[in-house]
């Protein structure tokens, strides 16, 4: 038990001791969202939870329970809310959840936070929730909080992307249920990947703006925005071999660990 | 993959097919809360998630991701917010989360809900969140929703309680981190139970009212409100052997399954 | 005028003087809710207001105006929202009302509060409202608040219940518009009780869970969940003879009066 | 019982029958606010409740429980929030209360509303709450609501004001705890008026704007903004003899009663 | 650039320097609302912006950007929400906007505020927003804020009104899109006034209460509540010659400028 | 008057006629935010207002008043909230403003919306506000709304960026108060640009994550994140020559104009 980085698996005295010793607390923020016919709805929970646990193990951190529902899926980055199973929070709700969690963790002594996002659309509600939580802590007399907020996929080397996309990286937005996420899932939960169902109806081709209602024909019917073909567990491991140490390095640098 | 009852492990077409076939959707509502020095902070997530998955397996249901943060712990039922690690949502936030989740699931075709609560203090915010979600669905033209809302521990036979508590059942409120929860954890996650740390500072003795700030000496320092001594995996199994079939029977009866 | 315990009947200098002298402020929280064909919609206002005034008279307290609208009636404890006249607040609204009132009273010097609940479903929104009010006072620099929060019906001796229910007490939930409330109303407002209209369609028989929409046949059409037959003013007086001194004793003990 | 116009004193079948017959529902909106050293904190509850009951008796209406906490007292019209005992709701809270009450009454069949305001500062939160309630009813499919919203003191004849103020009417704003309210209280609750404490520190002299913090010397220390000298029960009756029939006439005209 | 009183035209170092020197910050609060067939929808933005800039020029103030959407138009003072183009905020939204703006300006050092209202219905949401902003600043440790809140039209001499309305001033409420506003617009934006379209369907004749839905025949179809005939730029200038110096005098007096 | 595209300059009958004829309504969403020592705080209002008006003129559209306060400035894209003058709304407030405006415009007949964003951080609150507004319109029975949501700077040709940045485009985030915005301001409001104050303390060098509190040394003290040197009105015109026709083309295509 005491070896776990998961807050859910710690007793309260264990948690108290680690926080008192300066352990950074990672808060993964996920989503329940369609990821094509070959990946499960929980991809955006599995991946940031895995990355957070791996980083926390390296830096002596604690992983708070992942928030499993995220902000509304957008057509241009996640296919949109119309896909069955995509179950989301309003921006205000998600921000309040993050505010409340950050606030209570702060009251319990946590002073180092890492909000680790695993769902593109969560970024801004997470910015707001974190800001509200820190403001409220300040009003409760708690000042010395330092918090990082990041998307795990931003921690990747240029050469890794080049290796993965010899023809050019299509960009983070379109990488929904595509090569990156599929490879990562193959690396950490291969039992949940159905390679035989990878669709071939992409890539999506979006203009540079949003439209409501979404265009009837721009989102591939599968929900896969780019291409998942060619995904392998090995490629997923390449990514993890960037994500985990690069995030760990940032955490160490910022918190002087 | 297709055998899983976990929504997080289903693809969206799988989810769509099951919901279209009338599968009830279980939403476990948990908490991150102190459970004494011998149980982990995630007890109120592990237990309702396990019960929900077991019932869902029996009735052909789907288990949506457990909400891992619950309403503020109360001294008389959970020791209170002061224990390190007890990380909670305000009532409004929790109700909004449940509202949003119920609403989106309803938009995706779910018509049968089971809100399965695993944390005493969640009951009323769950009542409200469910009511708000159903009202909003109605305003969006979706009418035929039926929802059950329950605490899993209420599904127990009198004789089981008598067997567990030959000297009399102290009541649900005080059963925090005590015999019932400890036995259940021994049954499903024995690796997370530290029998050697079971404290002996209870049981709590509360008057019939709340006080803020909490009395300095009424909450046992360990956070265990009654007694955990005598907990065994076998007793936990007795409880599961009530909880799962009794809830399944209610679900079948209400939904005509 | 100066003898009244009712805040509404005091001038502001009188209120100021009493609060400065440490008078506890009672805030009754009521409801406007069906209470069968023999009791009026205001039962949950009349009863806690009466109890609060009686206790306040004993302990030198002040009774703030009763909040006359409460949280949504639940089928299993109040018949539900469908009965004409049951007029309720959402949980968030009720919590905000209590927060605002507690906050302002605190700004005016009140440091001892008794939230005295007269409607089962109010309990949790009152917990939350009180917590929010005290948090906000703390942010405004006001720290020394002590608050009790109680349901008046919990202050009853075992022997009184035994005397009232020789065949066994059916439990607080079902005691809606039944023997206890009817007897209490006979004791304090007999003009509002129509003994000839006491129905005979109960008692309700609920399972251990909620259902939305409510079962078509489990709530007695009268709205009386248990039985009101046998109610007398004398029995109501037995209850008051428990409620008032027992609450007064708790208030004195907690506030050192 | 059946003769009462007070919703709190009706059973639900009585309420149902009256509403079904088209009875207008009066919702008095009050306040708990300083009214000088000679009047109690509940003036703004007593007066609109009395007027509402009187009008309802004339037109066959129902009086819902008065909301006893109102919007924040303003220095220029009520002395401001600094007077002990002035206990207020934020605008949002008050609007939500009115929204919820109107909404539930509408669900129960009420189609004719009279929001009868007794506290100057409530006017706009009442406008908003009523608008929100009616919008929400419309979204729930209930369309035929008609609602009046009024301040009772606007229903007065010019000649009555001339009789009361031979030297000229100072205006509604300043008439706080002054001649009008004192006379009305003398007419309906003389036991709560302390004529010997009428102060002599007014009238207030305000510029045409608000200032925060309030000017240290513009609000009379007593909280009486104009003058209460000369108040009599007879004058209060003059006012009631305008208020009640004039409001009743408006209600009859608008609702075709 | 440096001569402008408009915050939007200042660089941040310029703004910082002026605020540090004690410059009062004017926040005009406007509306987008029908103003008859002869005046544009932006009247309630143009007028308070102009007045604020003129006063700021006199007193060394800064004009923050005008909030261009105001509270819901009321039939008795603005014709109501049904007129095409009347685009409004809910009271809560408007109060939050003012709260946020006041709060951030306070964090940046502003200590002297003038909330300058240009739309009748904004008054109370502005009161609330300002109160919330100042409370929040106090919780953030910022105490020395002084704020004025005013309607510009209240700064007019009796003799000017007499000159403008030889037959008697109909009152501020009805002066919607009528002589005052039309004359003011002729003085500052004559290009936006279509004198040939001034209607003749007023004046409105309202009772002393609100009604929802609005009476079908009391609001003149043009939306002009009183009369606009006889408006001239000269009369507008008379008004400006009152508004600007009188407000400037109040600002100077209150802030010791 | 009738030629103006500005809603603020239209009368309500003019607005009504244009909306009835299918005119798209542009809602610019701006900010009041530091833009270095050489640009004014209103850049994010001036630019989207100008672009919106230009596009509206081309496509027969209407420009609603620009929302002049935006979401909180982020250090990595706008320097952050600490710069004097940066005056922002919380995400919830901004979303509510957009919701209310979209809702009311929809009630008045607008069916084609273009939310035209001029401040990077506004993107997500605008997504949410638009979604909430459209949902609410749907609940009010209004279904046929089509809305575009865009950042104006995304409408630029690759070759234009290549021409502007021969050494490579640093990316939109860093282009705060830098070459693009400075050139655009030189093109439309040269009077507000102080070329002699362009600082030389950039470009900023940010890691791929946020930090609270912001790093003490990563944000250039001037607030200019990249470089503004070399800005010219001509370059601004190049940009406008992309922005306006490209957005107009998208609007025409989507709305079939």
Q: How many H/I helices of chain A?
A: 8
Shape of chain A: globular
The total tally of domains of chain A equals: 1
Radius of gyration of chain A: 18 Å
Largest two-chain interface: A-B, 56 and 56 residues
In CATH, the architecture of chain A is 3-Layer(aba) Sandwich
Regions of chain A with pLDDT < 50 over 5+ consecutive residues?
A: none
| Quaternary state of the chains | homohexamer
Structure write-up:
The first copy, chain A, has helices at 12-20, 43-59, 75-78, 91-107, 123-139, 158-164, 179-188, 233-255; strands spanning 25-29, 62-63, 112-117, 146-151, 210-212. With 257 residues, the first copy, chain A, is of the alpha/beta class. Chain A has one domain (7-255): Rossmann fold. Chain A has a 4-stranded parallel beta sheet, with helices on both faces. In chain A, α4 packs across α5 and α7 (179-188) crosses α8. The two termini of chain A are 23 Å apart. In chain A, 62% of the residues are buried. The model of chain A has no long low-confidence stretch (mean pLDDT 96). The interface between A and B is large, with 56 and 56 residues.
In short:
The structure is a homohexamer of 257-residue chains. Chain A has eight helices and five strands.
Topology, please?
6 copies of one chain form a homohexamer.
Chain A: H1 12-20, E1 25-29, H2 43-59, E2 62-63, H3 75-78, H4 91-107, E3 112-117, H5 123-139, E4 146-151, H6 158-164, H7 179-188, E5 210-212, H8 233-255
